[in-house]
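Hi V.,

You were right to ask for the full record rather than a summary. Here it is.
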Amino acid sequence: MRVAMIGTGYVGLVSGACFADFGHHVVCVDKDAGKIAALKRGEMPIYEPGLDDLVAVNVQAERLSFATDLKAPVAEADAVFIAVGTPSRRGDGHADLSYVHAAAREIAAALDGYTLVITKSTVPVGTGDEVERIIREARPDAEFAVVSNPEFLREGAAIRDFKHPDRIVVGTDDPRARQQMAELYRPLYLNQAPILNTGRRTAELIKYAANAFLATKITFINEIADLCERVGADVQEVARGIGLDNRIGGKFLHAGPGYGGSCFPKDTLALIKTGQDHEAPLRIVETVAAVNETRKRAMARKVLAALGGNLRGKTVAVLGLTFKPNTDDMRDAPSIPLITALHDQGATVRAYDPVGVEQAKAVLPDVTFCAGPYECADGADALVIVTEWEQFRALDLERLKRSMRAPVVVDLRNIYRPDEMERLGFVYESVGRPRSGP
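Predicted structure:
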């Protein structure tokens, strides 16, 4: 099939490259001429393991190409995906659908023959109806069907998630559209990926409900971690104890500094606003969002406690800036409010991240960025582990201790064992576990 992918952000670029790898002919379209020029040179706008190789292979095979004008790609396409951004709208928290609506208007003008118009962007319930209205109003003569096909890609594992999905959600009541969607995803039949056919509005809500539920699990275990610290329990053992119940499961039960990234913060907020608009308030999700924001800001108190209640004039080394490993995404990363709070209390901050430094420079202007973890820790009064990159899991702790001014480690991801850190002479603060020190 011939596919036009509107938007070359995280979802659009990964999806377009994967569809091309399935054998479809894909044109990824973006108005940003600089981004398209870079992609044509083989330069990726995001960090995602394996994406540069996947793009290169399919460009060479002439199954994947890039353009700034959608007219020809849409006119030739059997399926057009809308994969543009839907950030939180400034001022009220609703999802900003201006890019989606603009894409729909441009698609309408270019349609030629029966075409699937597929919303891949995360959008509130009813957006598909509005996309259909926009196209129908602009082109009463056009033959098309609007489908909701939400993505469930984890940053850092997106290619595998696309090719080995838990499910493929297809939101349409149109039999012809369902048949074409099945053909589009036919290469995944060998992986026995289930296709869930639903109504369009149901598909739109599935995406938001999934993200809100996962955000709730994270926030729940974080609050349990706070209780563990007060009563002398170990949150990791609690998480394992409840996670072994297959009704609960162990995923997303890792205590830490709160969730961030491009999805959970904006999607929980958009779902809350949708509930309010329809007089069906989502009190649990409202609380989740509020607790998570408070938690991210509160993490600096752990550093303050570990340093005896005074950060003025102290140097704090921060390892990990992105919201999770294997990505350069700094959107709503817990490191941002943490570092801001450290600065507010008088600390000097040095930081290191394996791939996120360039993105971090735009949002953390008063930080000294280092070339590696040991340079970052050199002479520091405390070291804070914020993101659980693999390379932080096996640091040379003796070397770390020798290089620091004081052997204080605040581990917000529970990478190390308290007994080991105590044996090595560290003052060690973690999340939801008893504090250790010499």
